[in-house]
Amino acid sequence: MPGTAEMTAPHERTAVVTGCATGIGAATAAKLAASGVRVIGVDIADADVATMPGVATFIQADLSTRDGVREVADAIDEPIDILVNNAGVAATRPWRQVLAVNALAPRDLTRLLLPKFRESAAVVTTASQAGFAWRTNYARAKAFLAQEDWDQAYAMFDSHPNIQDACYQISKEAAVVNMLATATANRATGLRANTVSPGTVQTPLLADFTEAMGADAIAGARDWSGRHADPGEIADAIVFLSSPSAGWINGVDLPVDGGYGAQIFTLTNPLGDNT
Length: 275
Fold this sequence. Notes:
Layout: E1 14-18, H1 23-34, E2 38-43, E3 55-60, H2 66-75, E4 80-85, H3 95-113, E5 117-126, H4 138-145, H5 150-155, H6 163-185, E6 192-198, H7 206-213, H8 215-225, H9 231-241, E7 253-256, H10 260-268
Parallel strand pairs: 1-2, 1-4, 2-3, 4-5, 5-6, 6-7
Helix pairs in contact: 1-9, 2-3, 3-6, 4-6, 7-8
């Protein structure tokens, strides 16, 4: 009919989800698939795709090395609508591995997949309330992320007096700052980038976090919120941020923590307001 726009069927959306075998990643993959998204899962585990609900294609990869990240990007030969940088490790691992998996791998995988993103694609990275001080430490995180060579990035912290204890916080601050850089650098293409920052979550990694951060700290976060989060509650936020419904949300770090971040902010009084 004259004056009637031709209607075309929407394409099937495709998502890449790292850390898809367990916890938040597994819940995200299942929820994305339930909403009609085809999921390419990535994990270091030697897992059978049949045991991962929602995962259509599986790529086994070690994201603690630059070559491993590149292998993932090279293995993806189709247009991508969503990237969920969810793979992560706790500070029970060596500090260089923590910085690699939690910060450098998301940075590089996002960059390598840029040519494969469809218009109006979305990147969501799992950060953490442990990175709450990213504003205070913005310059450090920016300098770290500016090191293209991973060894040079590690060298920034060779003389840090307490790097093993601080590495998780540093990695998650960098994850947020990298998201900000991605959001601003790619705004003209319509690519959106956001992070979610959970508090404590009932996943297999919780035991590692308890060992690294101390039982009292983990119990305190749980007690204030009333419980640990369910992985699906974090996945709900990731799925929303990756959806067209969040099309005007860009460059945002979304706390998904039952209000625990509000308590941190109130107690630390970062604005120095004494009224």
